[in-house]
Amino acid sequence: MRIGLLTEGGYPYVSGDARLWCDRLVRGLGQHEFDIYALSRSERQEDEGWIELPPQVSRVRTAPLWMAEDDGVVYGRRARRRFAEAYGELAAAVCEGSGAAVADTGTSGGAGSSGGAGAPAEAEADRFGSALYELAELARDEGGLIGALRSEGAVRALERACRAPGSLRTARAARVPDLLAVAAHFERALRPLSLDWYEGDGLDSVDLCHATAGGTAALPGLLARHFSGVPLLVTEYGVQLRAHYLASASVGDAPAVRALLAAFHGRLTGEVYRAAALLTPGNTHARRWQERCGADRTKLRTVYPGMEASRFAEVGENTEAAGYADPDTLVWVGRIEPAKDLISLLHSFADIRKEEPKTRLRIVGAPADGTEGATYLAHCKALAAQLFPDEAEGVHAVGDNPVSFEEIGGPEVPSLPEAYASGAVIVLSSVVEGFPISLVEAMFCGRATVSTDVGAVVEVIGGTGLVVPPRNPRALAEACVALLRDPERRERLGAAARARALELFTVEQNIAAFHSIYLDIVSHSPMRRVVVDEAGAPLPFGVPAEAHVPGRWTEARLMPTGRPRWAAGAPVRATVSVPAGEGA
Is the pLDDT of residue 556 over 50? Predict the structure, then answer.
């Protein structure tokens, strides 16, 4: 089977999203052939290069999202009219409904209910999809769309849509700078429409498109489905629409800009969910978000991320690890940023020290990229120094702070498994979390955990650890103290956690699930390509029934044109029999 793997800002680049699980998926499905279609997010990401690719990757095609040169295409009058109509329809569909309205556009079984309330929203979703595909066809016919999307006509069409009756109240208040900002964002998001990926042995020649995220990453898959009927599979371990909502809340854009961008991404997400043959959320938390955004429940199939369990096997299988670990040590592992709420963890640790004075806390991790992560780490260190002045056993001993900040690879924590092995209890204090990777790693190591109830934490833990409400230092402290005082309970929970992780969260189960899904989609949506002969005429039965079974028979053979060999030579005149009596 030939798979078109669609990525944005990740695989096959060295850095970025979904890099690890994509690499494990491709390497684990060696019986299939993969074509990689990657959208890069920055020049730095492209300069860092690619990871080493396995032999089943037949080719890689990339395109930058962070920049696009003017395609130099000059539209004629008819093309300009087509663009104005299509872009105006798309802008109108965005302006006449909010992103949340997408939740009402699902089919039966989706989050939205069918009926009178959902009909207008469904009509707007169809309007958005029709306009999107019309723009794609225009880009294909004319050779590009970049210049048109940057034109004054695009801004004027957006302005007319914002001022039209029935548009969003915040959209009607948009000023010229707001319109320019929104039009620039639309141009960036719609750049895949101008790519040459869809014909001429591109995405039209694959059996299945697998998008590793929703939104812009899935847009090439939408067009491959529209132009060539290629089925689309969308995997979301973090829902792109949710990520956009969270990111827009922290950006200082004008209300009109935020509202219009939210509506655009909502419409795009709704179209992706409608067109996909299957959606594979990474957990129930992501699944609920997809249902709220209009996904049909019959299309949803949860597939947990696959993680490498072997690197934690030595720690997890060592029943004597309790002697290796400090029974009075709590360990936190992760990326240091405000969403992890280390401030609450430090205040909780102050309560823990009142009950168990010998307890220590090891915070293992590096700050998130950018100045925010470094600033937050400095704030946490200052708070730790304030809450826990250096302590000493005697007047002549050197003081020591019970809270330490360390990074993987240092002298105290050479590797990630050793970080988990060094403590009796692993703590997660996040206020925002998707799929808690550090929690699964702790489970592979057979460690008891205390976590906050956010994201997919409860689904992952499944009763093998303690869960408390977020932003509740006292509850977090009480749970940690309970486990510190009960080593037998810690051991039972750790063993149960490891068994659960090995059953649900390994690379092997992830690969097996996607292999089954690939076969299921292709069996229900086989590609029906028209094979032609040397003269360009359709070749009947050019693609045999065995086309999706690996083997030499999968290659369509072109039959020679003209007459067969046994018909060579001059034609023979047929003889006419003469009835008796009609001769001479």
Answer: no
Residue 9: phi, psi to the nearest 5?
A: 65, 30
- Residue 455 CA to residue 286 CA, distance in Å, equals 8
Alpha carbon distance 366, 335 (integer Å): 6
The position carrying tokens 């720690």 is 315
> What's CA 328's distance to the chain center, in Å?
39
**How do residues 88-97 score in pLDDT, each as one tens digit?**
999 999 998 6
Dihedral in degrees, nearest 10, Cα atoms 438, 439, 441, 444: 180
Rounded Cα distance between 387 and 408, Å, is: 25
pLDDT tens digit string along 23-77? 999 999 999 999 999 999 888 888 889 999 999 999 999 999 888 777 778 889 9
* Nearest CA-CA partner of 381 in 336, 425, 442: 336
Query: In whole angstroms, what is the distance from residue 345 CA to residue 359 CA?
Result: 14
Residues in the chain: 584
Phi, psi of 472 (to 5 degrees): -135, 80
Q: Are 59 and 27 in contact (CB under 8 A)?
A: no
User: How far is CA 187 from each of CA 40, 67, 257, 264, rounded to the nearest angstrom?
Assistant: 16, 11, 14, 12
The pLDDT score that the predictor gives to residue 119 is 58
pTM for this predicted structure: 0.81
CA pair distance 275, 269, nearest whole angstrom: 10
Q: Mean pLDDT over residues 122-134, rounded?
A: 86
Q: Report how far residue 459's alpha carbon sits from residue 68's, in angstroms, rounded to the nearest whole number.
A: 42
State the residue for tokens 């105006």.
88
- How far is the C-alpha of 273 from the C-alpha of 299, rounded, in Å? 9
DSSP-assigned letters across all residues of 25-49: HHHH-TTSEEEEEEEE--HHHHHH-
3-state secondary structure 211-254: ECCCHHHHHHHHHHHHHHCCCEEEEECCCHHHHHHHHHHCCCCC
Any bridge partners for residue 142, and if so which?
A: none
Residue 449 φ then ψ, to 5°: -130, 155
Q: Which of 490, 468, 492 is nearest to 479 (CA)?
A: 468
Looking at residue 100, its pLDDT comes to 41
Please name the residue that has the structure tokens 């390497």. Answer: 27
To the nearest whole percent, how much of the chain has pLDDT over 70?
82
Do 3 and 206 meet the contact criterion of CB atoms below 8 Å apart? yes
Who contacts 191 (Cβ-Cβ below 8 Å, separation ≥6)? 63, 65, 68, 146
How far, rounded to the nearest angstrom, does the alpha carbon of residue 185 sit from its chain's CA centroid? 20
Residue matched to tokens 């007459």: 563
Evaluate if residue 311 carries a pLDDT over 60. yes
Residues 347 and 472: their CA atoms lie apart, in Å, by 10
DSSP 365-433: --BPSSHHHHHHHHHHHHHHHHHS--B-SSTTSPPB-SEEEE-TTSSS--SHHHHHHTEEEEEE--SS-
Q: Hey, is 366 helix, strand or coil? A: coil
Q: Is the peptide bond before 192 cis (omega within 30 degrees of 0)?
A: no
User: What's the first-to-final CA gap in the chain, in angstroms?
Assistant: 71
Handedness of CA 6, 12, 17, 19 (dihedral sign): positive
pLDDT tens digit sequence for 470-501? 999 999 999 999 999 999 999 999 999 999 99
Q: Are 102 and 287 in contact (CB under 8 A)?
A: no
Q: Is the pLDDT of residue 98 over 70?
A: no
